[in-house]
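Subject: for your reference before the review

Hello V.,

The reviewers asked for a structural picture of the protein, and I figured it would be easier to keep everything in one thread rather than splitting it across files. Below is the amino acid sequence we used in the manuscript, unchanged from the supplementary table.
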Amino acid sequence: MQDLKIVKPTLNDVEGIFRLVEHFAKKGDILMRSRENITERIREFFCAKDGDSVVGIASLRLFFPYLAEVRTLAIDENYQGMSLGKRLVEACIDEARSLGVKDVFALTFKKEFFIKLGFRLIDKKQLPSKKIWEDCINCPLFPNCKEEAVLLSLK
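And here is what came back from the structure prediction:
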C-alpha cells in the first residue's frame, strides 16, 4: 500500500469507481449507478486512491436550497479500518462548506459511523421529495427502506 490519498477523480477513474459501486450495490449496501451516471456526475465524487487504484469513494450531491447529501460511500474491504470513510466524508463536508451549504444529510445503514462524525438522526420525511422520487423510487428496498436519515448542520 502506497500513500493513501483523497482526490477528485478524473474520467480515468470511472472504471474503478464503477467496480466499487457494482460490488457494494450487489451486496445491497448502496444503490447501483451506471458508468454513464458516474461519468456525468464525476465532479460530485471524491476518491481514496492507493497509487492509481480507486479503493474508496464518496460523492456530494447538491439540493436546493443550501442542502447536500453524502452518498455512494464505499471502501474496498482490503482498506476498511484505515479511516478512509471518515476522510472521504470530511472531504465532502469541506466542499459543502466551501459552497455555502448549510446542512448535509445521508441515508445510511451505518448511523453510528455518521453520528461519530457529528451527524444527528432525523426523520426521513424531512428530506427533499426530489431525493425520494429520483433515487429511492429505484431502490429494491423501496418503500420498506431500513436506512436511517442523518443530518449535519454546518451553520
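For the response letter, the relevant points are probably these. The chain has one domain: 4-153. Helices lie at 14-26, 35-40, 84-99, 111-116, 129-134.

Happy to draft the paragraph if you're swamped.

O.
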